[in-house]
Structure formats: C-alpha cells, structure tokens
Amino acid sequence: LNIINTTLPSEYNANYNKIQLIESIKIKSNILKKINKPNYESFLLLSSLLKSLRLENSTASHKDFWANENLNIYQDAIATFIDNDDIESAFTFAEENKSNLLVQSLNDIEAKSYANIPAELLEKENDLRAKLQFYQKKKFELENSDNIDSTKLIDYFELITTTEFAIDEIVDTLESHYPEYYELKYNEEDLKAADIKNILDDKTAFIEYFVGKDSAYVFTITKDNISVNSLDILSDSTNIFLKYYQSISDPNVSATFLDSHSKSTYKLVLEKALENINSNIQDLIIVPDDILNNLPFELMKNEKDEYLGFKYNIHYQYSGRLWRLLKNRKSFDKKYDFLGYAYNSDNVNYIAERACATMETGNLLCSDKEIQNIATILKDKSLLLKNANKDDILKNASQSRIVHLATHSCLDSENSDYSRIFFNDGYITNIDLQLQTMNADLAVLSACESGYGELIKGEGAMSISKGFFHAGCKSTLVSLWPVDDCSTSEFMGHFYTYLNEGLQKDVALKKAKQTYLETAHPSRTHPYYWAGFILIGDNAAVFGNGGGYLIWVMGFLGLLVFGWCIKKV
To answer: Rounded CA gap, 464 and 474, in Å?
Structure first.
C-alpha cells in the first residue's frame, strides 16, 4: 500500500504521461475509499488533469470518451465532498461534467475574436473545417447507403484523418504564435456556487442535476443558500420517465394516466429540490442531466395539483458555465428584428405534424399563416422568406435578432451530428451549423423534436438546438416531441404577442401557454398541443427591458406632459 503514502506532485511535467498519472491516482483514490480515508488532493489533481486532457484533445469523439470514461471520478468526488459537508466543492465537480464541447467551442470563438489573428489564417482553418465536415458527411451517407463501396469508405477515412492533422497544425500555430488567443482559450475558470449566487437575484433559484452510474444528486442554489439532495432515480425510474413522456406527448392517453405520471415524476425529480426555497421565488433555471434532458419539467405536478410551469417562470441551461458565458455575451445590432421562414415543398400533400419519418416531407398547412401573423404582431423590420433556398436563409439569419423556422426537423437517434432541419432545397445538419455565424438573440425552431436528442454522458442531449448555440445564438425555443402544425401556429402567435410587449422570454412562454389553454377548443387542450416547447439559454427580453412597450410609451407621454406643464408655468 505504498501508493497511499505517495506524495502527489503539485505541478507535473507537461511531458508526463497524463493518462498513466490519472490511472495511478484513480487506484490510490479507490484504495483510500475502501479504508475510509478520502483524499481531497487526489480529486483536485484528477480534476486538473481531466480538464487539461479535455482541452488538449481537438476531436469531439475524444472529448466524449473522456467525459464518459471518467464519470466515476466525478461521482466519487461529489459523494466524498458531500459526506464531508463541502457542498460547494461537490457542485464544482458536478459542473465540470456538463456541456464541455459547447462551452469550449464558444470560448474558442470568443478567443479568436479578441486575439488579433490574421483573417487569412482564420479563413484557412474555416476552409479546412468545412472540408472535414464535407468528408464526414460523405462517409456517413456512404455508411448508411444500401451498397457500401469499401474503397470509397477507406478514401474518405484517409481524407478525414489528413484534414484533422492539418487542422491540428493550424491550431498549434495559433496557440504558439498568438499568446492572447492561447490564454483566452484555456484560461477557463471553474464555476463555483458563489459565482451562481452573485448572478442570481432574490426571486430566482438555480437547480442543477448530476446523474452518475450509481448515484444522482440535485443542487439547489438561491441568492443566499445552497443545498444538495440525493435522488433515487437510477433503479426503476426510466420506466416512470418514459410513461411521463408518453402521457404528455400522446393526445390519446387518459387524463388519469397523465395526472398520475406527472405527480410521480415530480416526486422523484423535483420535490426534494424545491424543499428549501422560499415563497419569494418566481423563476427557476434548470440544468438537467442524462435522461432528464428530454423531459419538460413544466408539466410535473406538485402536491397541490399545480403544474410547475404555471407556478414558476422556467428556462433551461446546458450548464452553469454556459449560463455565465451567455450572460456576459453582448448582443449585436441587426438589420432585421425577425426573420421568418415557412417550409414549402413540391409535395402537394399537407400533413398535420412537423415531423418526418423519411426524407420525403409534405407541406405544412399552417406554417405560412404562422410567420405572416408574427410579422403582423412585430410590424417593422421583419423579413419573410417563403421560397428561399437554405443559403439565402443562413445569410440573412446572421442579420436577424430572431430567427424563426417553421419547418420539419428529423432526429438522428444514432448520430446526432446528422439530425436535420429542412428547407425548400434540402436540409442542414447539426454539424453544418457549427460552421455558421448567426449571433441571434433567439432561434425559434418551430419544428418537431428540435430540443430532443441523443444522450451523451457529460454533454446532455445532442439535439439540433445545440447546433444553433454553436452558431452563436443566445437562446433557442425548441420542441421535445412531434408537434401539431396548426396548434403550434396558434401558440406562436400568443408567444410573440407577449414577447413584443417586452416580457422576458420565459415569462412570455408561460403566458403563451396559459392563453392557449384559455382559448383553445376543449378537444385540443391536451399538453401535446401546447406544452412541447421549452426555452434554453438566455431568458432576457428581446424587445425592451422587460417592462413592456406600453410602459415605455406611457413613460414617454408622461415626460411630454411634464415638459408641457413646465413650459406653461
């Protein structure tokens, strides 16, 4: 047991084999765990090493591997710190295993914008990344074709490998020749509970989940408090969650079935999390994990038979670090307030859902009406694109505060990089979006399952929504199931009415759902028709500062009257 007494280096040689060191520390930690001698320094060093490996590995597949491979490290660290009443350190470890790919991608974009790197060098890197994605897409299409040409498959594999090496060489050049870029890219501060408290106001609670292989926890943070609870959601809960999802996404289930599973899911997931918040709390920020990423919390019912989404304003974050990053990101001046696109197909058949089971997609009966109605609500600075191709839409999206796509989307459950969103002349994939620059305040993906995706440990749901964050969007409004076309059109009218009044996005979303229920035909009041959309990312108002256009007008008129009175005196 000499390894127990081995002093771990506080600073290790950069050329030391980090993977071997990680394995050695894991062995030491496991031995200490068995003899009840937790070693905090081991976990802190492991954290530093894992972060270093994550930042150094350039490919998504490597990052995914490390997130999944070392989930037990985070799980054991969290348990150790909680057992010793150090909830703050436990929270920091939980945060380290959240949406690292997205956070690192956005940090890289920010670093490049401030580091005075020559445009031609950035263009060369972008060209290589475009080639890489082209080869990857061709390889994917070939692998999924009926007749696989093994020679072409090998060619694409070699092209992908060669291009990845070329990208690595450019990245090495950027990091070695532009120290400001290197520092901005890698100087990623850990997120502490105190950082969350500093951002929160006294009416908001931040709720973050960690789901490991053997244990699960929920952290609840308010302006002046942090608490943690263990959750019993790893045994038979998957079946309960699936029934909950079925009860809210299938309009044919009974009200009793819906009520029962809304309450049982609330008890498993939220009851403990909300025990320690006071009655002043109005807003919830939720960072889900694992299967919880694909469930809407708004439809969970408490012991008072209240839907959570009608008691609180709710929005979601992929991680606390991403929330901090989005809060600090500036908004850009735009040519258009609203870009609206409605899918039109050569297929003359109309369909009722914005979903697709094949590559053949039909027209949507209410999508044209949807974007016309929104443009009427917002009035000025709206651009409607009905028959435009995808390149025109993507070009104009970079000049728009809101990008609204009323179309079809298709989830690829086996490879989320190739989940698709459709345009008149084809589609773009998740991986295509990573080369785009939108910087919109809000992307509304008025399509099916745009927020639902493949679950990857440490990254969450790899939905088409994440592609829009990679493209620079500050928030997305997305669906968690195949939504009904015409009820979605009606719902969106309510949402934009409240958004135009200057309300925060999450408040506008809650009010839109309430208004839909109050006005809809009784046959279309099941949650399937109105509850599929959730807000992810920044929840700030798009128009005004949340006080509403009417308040601004009244204030302005008041000043005029006041000035007139002074003049008269």
So the answer is: 14
The values of phi and psi at residue 182, to 5°, are -60, -45
C-alpha separations of 448 from 85, 126, 433, 513 in Å:
44, 30, 18, 18
**Residues in a beta bridge with 287:** 208
**Phi, psi at residue 204, to the nearest 5°?**
-125, 140
* Domain positions in the chain: 2-101, 117-177, 334-551
At 24 the pLDDT is: 67
pLDDT at residue 119 is higher than 80: yes
Over residues 11-30, mean pLDDT: 57
What does each C-alpha distance from 284 to 35, 206, 357, 363, 503 come to in angstroms? 40, 6, 35, 37, 16
Could you give phi then psi for residue 409, rounded to 5 degrees? -135, 150
Candidate from 50-54, 233-237, 393-397, 561-565 with smallest mean pLDDT: 561-565
SS (H, E, C) 239-298: HHHHHHHHHHHCCCCCHHHHHHHHHHHHHHHCCCCCCCCCCCCCEEEEECCHHHHHCCHH
* Model pLDDT, residue 16: 46
The CATH number given to 334-551 is 3.40.50.1460
Q: Is the CB of residue 408 less than 8 Å from the CB of residue 366?
A: no
71-85, 279-293, 442-456: segment of lowest average pLDDT: 442-456
Q: Which helix (H) or strand (E) holds 337?
A: strand 336-342
Which pTM value belongs to this model?
Answer: 0.86
Backbone angles phi, psi at 282, to 5 degrees: -115, -25
Concatenating the DSSP letter of every residue in 122-171 gives HHHHHHHHHHHHHHHHHHHHHHTSSS--HHHHHHHHHHHHHHHHHHHHHH
What is the gyration radius of the CA atoms in the chain, in angstroms? 25
Contacts 24+ apart (CB under 8 A), 508-515: 509/313, 509/315, 509/477, 509/533, 509/534, 509/535, 510/309, 510/310, 510/313, 510/314, 513/298, 513/309, 513/310, 514/310
| Residue 555 pLDDT level (bands cut at 50, 70, 90) | very low
Structure tokens belonging to residue 456:
């990857």
Joined tokens for residue 329? 């990101």
